[in-house]
Amino acid sequence: xxxxxxxxxxxxxxxxxxxxxxxxxxxxxxxxxxxxxxxxxxxxxxxxxxxxxxxxxxxxxxxxxxxxxxxxxxxxxxxxxxxxxxxxxxxxxxxxxxxxxxxxxxxxxxxxxxxxxxxxxxxxxxxxxxxxxxxxxxxxxxxxxxxxxxxxxxxxxxxxxxxxxxxxxxxxxxxxxxxxxxxxxxxxxxxxxxxxxxxxxxxxxxxxxxxxxxxxxxxxxxxxxxxxxxxxxxxxxx
Length: 238
What we know:
Elements: H1 2-8, H2 11-15, H3 17-24, H4 28-43, E1 49-54, H5 61-69, E2 73-79, H6 82-94, E3 101-105, E4 119-123, H7 131-144, E5 151-157, H8 165-177, H9 182-193, H10 202-212, E6 214-223, E7 226-233
Parallel strand pairs: 1-2, 1-4, 2-3, 4-5
Antiparallel strand pairs: 5-7, 6-7
Helix pairs in contact: 4-5, 7-10, 8-9
């Protein structure tokens, strides 16, 4: 499944990722910044933490926002796409943060299966995985590596795209607003939809989190089809 996701983000798509993401998701940077703020508020400002970042390739925006807010945090960034991970490494070097980030080409299951992380972030991944089993599996893999009660930020598209024609039209308008003509709008929308399978509802996201070992999810950001939640790894029983 990781290989299937990686194939979608080849060199050509990686090259346009930053611009495309900020058009496709109104509030792209705000989502990353709020993710960092929620994790900081949960863990406590100024405290050391080891943070797992899943699907970190591309802009590395979630890492840059969190690292600048919390200078005592270190990161392990995992992504299955070589071009996307290379792009993230470039942004981390430019931001002067590469010494605080270990990058891993691969999947979460390639990491040591022990609870060695204080928090985790997974942004823009879940809707690229086909079927509930794959979605549940990646959440379970994350949970396995988190300390009891550790926070997870998970963000991505939810709701079936066809269920919201008004949102689809607004999504296309975002591209027109940024200078795209009719043919380019159709191409961009087709690429966005290609192979994507969002959870059909917020209830489905919450159910997947619960089944994977997370509790107390709260949504803190929304933008058309996009949502972001903070949940906690279920604490170990006494």
